[in-house]
Write a structure and sequence with these properties.
Elements: H1 6-18, E1 25-31, E2 37-43, E3 46-52, H2 61-70, E4 80-84, E5 89-93, H3 100-105, H4 110-127, H5 129-133, H6 140-158, H7 165-183, E6 187-190, E7 199-200, E8 208-209, E9 216-219, H8 222-228, H9 237-253, H10 262-289, H11 300-313, H12 318-328, H13 331-349
Amino acid sequence: MPDHDARLALLQGWLARDLGLHAERIEPASSDASFRRYLRVFRDGGTLVVMDAPPATENVRPYLRVTELLEPLGIHVPRVYEADVEQGFVLLEDLGRTHYLARLGSGGDPQRLYADALQALADIQLRGAAAAAELSPYDRPPLARELAEMPEWFLERHLALELTGAEREMIALAFEFLIGEALSQPQVFVHRDYHSRNLMVVGERNPGVLDFQDALRGPIGYDLVSLLKDCYISWPRARVVEWVNGYRSLLQARGGSVGGGPAQFLRWFDLVGAQRHIKVLGRFARLWYRDGKPGYLRDLPLTLDYVRETCRLYPELAALSEFLERRVAAELPRANERVARQAAAAASAS
């Protein structure tokens, strides 16, 4: 961390002066797609984590509020020890350094890890009905805003495509279909980023769950698809369907809303997944062009593959499927290579 880091100096003062906490050292723990960052504080042989959320761009209140909603459900979220809302600091339990993606990448057993994650998700959705009622709805306005990021940032900005009027109309119709499908599902507590980088491997009540401050009340399939069609790791379709069917059975055994049969539940899963992954295509591109974060561009190919797969499976998305195959699939590697060359040239010039 740079010596001139003004937020770090402010944080050190908060820890020492306001909390009486002597930090032996402070190191970066992680960052995310927002302007938040997380710092690991070493003290007395143990560690804590501080969320640093600059008030000019971030607000810690939603995080604190959703923590209070999830803790009574038995979900292992980081315990909040102290918070300074005005300065944008939250002192948290340290859930360790190993997230699901790292453990899976080093040979961790996916059946055991996903069984834990699916059980925790069922607890959120089934025990969390009252908590969900306190959340804002994941309804038409946010769904539409998210989908609109894809034409603007992914198609036009990243791929440099010039869309025809007919193509814009086709995309609008496909988006309207996906919004209607999302709104038709049972509405539950939705974490919104329930995936392998936000699930920590912990010894008690695995997994530890992070990054839930944007929770809304929305489609039952959303968090399930975030987990099983993760933008950072993929699984064969047959295994995904097996997990989906097993999760439906888990919900059904506990009295949850699971639709008319496995086919309907899988349809919910796939189609809300298309909405999510279309949004992510735009969001990952925006993180580079607006926020200067190129790291997410490498995850665009898998995300696009998820959209292409779903569009091939559902006749209602046939026109979008044809467009993606004809106009988009071949352009993405070229666009990513262009950005890589630009970044390399900028690095060599600095």
